[in-house]
Amino acid sequence: MGVLDSKIPSGPLADKWTKHKNEIDLVNPANKRNIDIIIVGTGLAGGSAAATLAELGYNVKTFCYQDSPRRAHSIAAQGGVNAAKNYQGDGDSVYRLFYDTVKGGDYRSRESNVYRLAEVSSNIIDQCVAQGVPFAREYGGLLDNRSFGGVLVSRTFYAKGQTGQQLLLGAYGAMNRQIQRGKIKSYTRHEMLDLVLVDGKARGIIARNLVTGEIERHSAHAVVLATGGYGNLFFLSTYAMGANVMAAWRAHRRGAFFANPCFTQIHPTCIPVSGDHQSKLTLMSESLRNDGRIWVPKRKEDAIAIREGKLKPIQLSEEERDYYLERRYPAFGNLVPRDVASRAAKERCDAGFGVNKTGEAVFLDFASAIMRYGKEKALTSGMKDPDNNTIRELGEKIVEAKYGNLFQMYEKIVDANPYKTPMMIYPAVHYTMGGLWVDYNLQTTIPGCYAAGEANFSDHGANRLGASALMQGLADGYFVLPYTIGDYLSDDIRTGAIPTDSPEFDAAEKDVRDRMEKLMSGTGIHSVDYYHKKLGKIMWNKCGMSRNEKDLKEAIKEIAELRKDFWENVKIPGSPDSKNQELEKAGRVADFLELGELFAKDALERKESCGGHFREEYQTPEGEALRDDENFKFVSAWEYKGEPSAAKLHKEDLVYENIKLKTRSYK
Amino acid sequence: MKLYLKIWRQKDASAKGQMVDYTLDGVESDMSFLEMLDILNEELISKGEEPIEFDHDCREGICGTCSLQINGRPHGPDTMITVCQLHMRSFNDGDEIVIEPWRAKAFPVIKDLIVDRTAFDRIQQAGGYISVNTSGRPVDANAIPIEKHIADTAMDAATCIGCGACVAACKNASAMLFTSAKVSQFALLPQGQVEAADRVQNMVRQMDLEGFGNCTNTGACEIECPKGISLENIARMNREYFSASLKG
Amino acid sequence: MSGLIKSSIARKVVMALSGLFLVVFLTQHFVINITSVIDPETFNSWSHFMGYNPLVQFILQPILIAGVIIHFVMGFILEIQNKKARGISYVKYKGSANAPWVSRNMIYSGLVILAFLGLHFYDFWVHEMTYKYVEFLPEDPSRYHEETVEKFAPFWRTIIYMISFVLLSLHLWHGFSSSFQSMGVNNKYSAGIKIFTKLFSVVIPLGYAFIALYHHLNPITH
């Protein structure tokens, strides 16, 4: 197993977590008062971990770059949160959720972690309801569910199209309660710039106060990184503008292995790019695929006519449309997993069937759902022989009740009415399954440095199922990390407060200052965004939805060149000693420029197609992903060795004792 | 299109700010308002000037970070959206656009168009939660059935994104809509009723301490709220506060 | 008072309650006044009752005066606090886009009404006080109607009264319905309450204006 010890407890899968909790060391309540924990990132994982750890008695310091913990990008998750409650009585179970997740991840995740996730999932719902999260309910007063891609049961709990927001506000409330009690000290508008190691253990961070520009030292007995994913590597993504990899990458440079960087999720239903000025892509919730049907014209001439504005989509009859997901995947239809749906859209557009100006969009059509709901409503309200217009009106009302805010958002951005004409969508970068390598305890390869939520790699393998990100963030934060971290901290009860005037802190602060000085000394003419956009283009074109050896090799070379140019030339106005958004961006892009190369390298090394990672060289004759379990059934964990090209690969073999590896099929 | 922009510039919290004029050409109608500012900033950087700092993050209308007073209205001329969702098709060639930070004593300017909204956090800390332990073992979620319309009304109140448009719009810089949204969410749900009396008193006390103005029921907050939070919440909070005060 | 000023919601409630009290007074005052048009005899006897009944004079009248004072003092306090809460004002503030003029200018309609009250007090109340407690003139149950009508002989006074009633109407237009919101009434009856308050805020001031105009146009000729 080499240097990677995943610390998976022995015993039957279903008992591992309980057994582990019983066996790990605990810290007694009196001693917890003497232990400090730093949590970077206040989204679902960080916020919930902070609240729980503080409640247990630890002294917690939280850091976020936003002006309030409540604004972390977990807030943007629309669709829902999965839990194996089986409230619908449709045969759901912990095992089924576990199985769906492993299968959805294309057998590249760790069995034990995923099982634990499925096991604690129903606690999340109990917990959140107790906290006053207003989940959607049925008329009987019980919780409502909807279904999501890649599964055959309804297990997704939701709060309108704002589930992430409501869950985050729940965690934020729990944090606020502890802030009020003085157990959490919240540092907002602060960014972690480096991790400080003392005797090989994570003992603090260097942070920049983004308002004053001050460089601050903060010490603790353990550091938790819950800083989300690195999708902004692509410049255009559904991530928040400020989302970045800095904390995770700084930890990587200090010794934390980075796992599966090339596993990126491209979400199939986003609003297409409209022009070069675009700064951000907007997601339309996957829940729309419950009722929306995805199609392109059957004939290329029609697609061209639509692109040129000569033909309207509603003029095409059913026979002239190609509902390609229903055609290719009859069992799952429009509800195939995200990676499959995204690639299928790309395949149609590459073949010339795209439907917007740039030829990079497909239709998501609600017409049949509107008519179906309309008919149902007409029947239940006792109407006899209603005409089509009445049915449509009734149906539109139902669709509005279900997706009103999403439709409204679409209309505001695109200036087209999705009730009357089909939406146009195209895949966009949305989530990164890769992240810091962690063991069963969520500890990275640096002792005392933990990673939770999207920042770690552990649960989603090569593809994440819809509504599982919220589940994982809260599972890590509320129910896993607070227990497992005690095992490590039980050795620290006599350590006392960690001083911040040690040589290690001096050295780390100096590194940070040198780096900022170097960034500010660029002599060129281009802004940070110029470099970020260039990097994004390389990533999207060569490391995007499908990859090949030639492109990846070129990408590696181009990114290295771009990085060199960036460090010599990037132009940053203003001073480092005050609020300076350009400097903030520069620090983040500098890290993306290193990670991008490692990403391409990882994609190049993984000579198979699995989940979100599709290598053109490895596909079936029908164009489906061709996995290679013989040679690639492992987690790639990269060790930092200076330049990304020198990174060293460690492999954690994935052992499947409870699930038989099968070719993933949604047909 | 070509635009004439008047933008508030202020070096830091203690500096004296002023309006500065900019002219920006080549703006396209399908750009978002913030993308228009991005372009202006790129121009400023290329001239070696400091770009205009403004708060923004998710750029999809949910995080509540963006906060600009545009032509005298929070989040600009459109309703039910945040600035990041505002598109340039709402403006015409040759328009003058005045861009200012939110103005309230409780929201001091940090730099340019960025204000400090931690007052909102402190109001929430004063009681905007239900005191249950997160590491405990609560009862099964379906053991507390909640009438659908109550759950829906609570959800409507809970959609507040904490952007501060209500304060910015209110002629009195009152934070009643913000505070009442949270009070309402929990006052409606059975889980929140145990602490309801303390919650409303503590949150209102903190709101007053922060220096927000008094509500005079002009209704501007409801019109400008990007999430359409209803004035009913303010009435509910008044009621809750009143009955909590009577209980002592 | 200090306890009431402490909480913003209590201040609102005080504003609302004192306002509602004044609305009640306004109604009662109107009912008596309108008799001056319909039947001078009734007007005289009711006015005399109000002027000499000890309960009215020594309990209700001070309460009324206190109500007026509380309402406008609180109004000033709110206005000062609210101005302060903004801090630096906007270069451009488009209040008309999201709130009606009346709701944003209660302080001005209120000030006009306050000024009018000054005149009105001078016209009637000071006169009454002088009559009863300074000059100790004998009770005369028949003098009220004539005195009232005479007041409206000058054109300028009638005009000032009429303008004030317009502002009273605007003040009530926002204030009356708003007081229910302040006291937390926002339910299925709200729509009805709103219609009632809006009607009231037009009809009552219109009625007052009518009375003033009527007396101006119909002077008593001896």
UniProtKB/TrEMBL annotation, chain A:
InterPro entries: FAD-dep_OxRdtase_2_FAD-bd, FAD/NAD-bd_sf, Fum_R/Succ_DH_flav-like_C_sf, Fum_Rdtase/Succ_DH_flav-like_C, SdhA/FrdA/AprA, Succ_DH/Fum_Rdt_flav_su, Succ_DH/fumarate_Rdtase_cat_sf. Its cofactor is FAD. It catalyses: a quinone + succinate = fumarate + a quinol. It is an enzyme of class 1 (oxidoreductase). Keywords: Cell membrane, Electron transport, FAD, Flavoprotein, Membrane, Oxidoreductase, Transport. One of its GO terms (molecular function) is flavin adenine dinucleotide binding. Its main location: membrane. It is found in: Cell membrane. Residues 36-470 form the FAD-dependent oxidoreductase 2 FAD-binding domain. The active site is at residue 338. It comes from the Bacteria. One of its GO terms (biological process) is anaerobic respiration. Its EC number is 1.3.5.1. It is a peripheral membrane protein. Residues 532-666 form the Fumarate reductase/succinate dehydrogenase flavoprotein-like C-terminal domain. GO terms for cellular component: plasma membrane. Belongs to the FAD-dependent oxidoreductase 2 family. FRD/SDH subfamily. NCBIfam families: PRK07573.1 (NF005749), sdhA_Bsu (TIGR01811). This is succinate dehydrogenase. It comes from Flagellimonas hymeniacidonis.
Automatic annotation (TrEMBL), chain B:
Residues 151-181 form the 4Fe-4S ferredoxin-type domain. GO terms for molecular function: 2 iron, 2 sulfur cluster binding; electron transfer activity. GO terms for biological process: aerobic respiration; respiratory electron transport chain. InterPro entries: 2Fe-2S_ferredoxin-like_sf (IPR036010), 2Fe-2S_ferredoxin-type (IPR001041), 2Fe2S_fd_BS (IPR006058), 4Fe4S_Fe-S-bd (IPR017896), Beta-grasp_dom_sf (IPR012675), Helical_ferredxn (IPR009051), SDH/FRD_Iron-Sulfur (IPR050573), Succ_DH/fum_Rdtase_N (IPR025192). It comes from the Bacteria. Coiled coil: none annotated. Residues 18-103 form the 2Fe-2S ferredoxin-type domain. Its cofactor is [2Fe-2S] cluster; [3Fe-4S] cluster. It holds the Pfam family Fer4_7. PANTHER family: SUCCINATE DEHYDROGENASE (PTHR11921:SF41), SUCCINATE DEHYDROGENASE IRON-SULFUR PROTEIN (PTHR11921). Belongs to the succinate dehydrogenase/fumarate reductase iron-sulfur protein family. This is Succinate dehydrogenase/fumarate reductase iron-sulfur subunit. The lineage of its organism: Bacteria, Pseudomonadati, Bacteroidota, Flavobacteriia, Flavobacteriales.
From TrEMBL, chain C:
Keywords: Membrane, Transmembrane, Transmembrane helix. It comes from the Bacteria. The chain crosses the membrane at residues 12-38, 58-80, 101-122, 155-174, 195-217. Gene3D superfamilies: Fumarate reductase/succinate dehydrogenase, transmembrane subunit. GO terms for cellular component: membrane. InterPro entries: Cytochrome_b-558, SQR/QFR_C/D. This is Succinate dehydrogenase cytochrome b subunit. It comes from Flagellimonas hymeniacidonis.
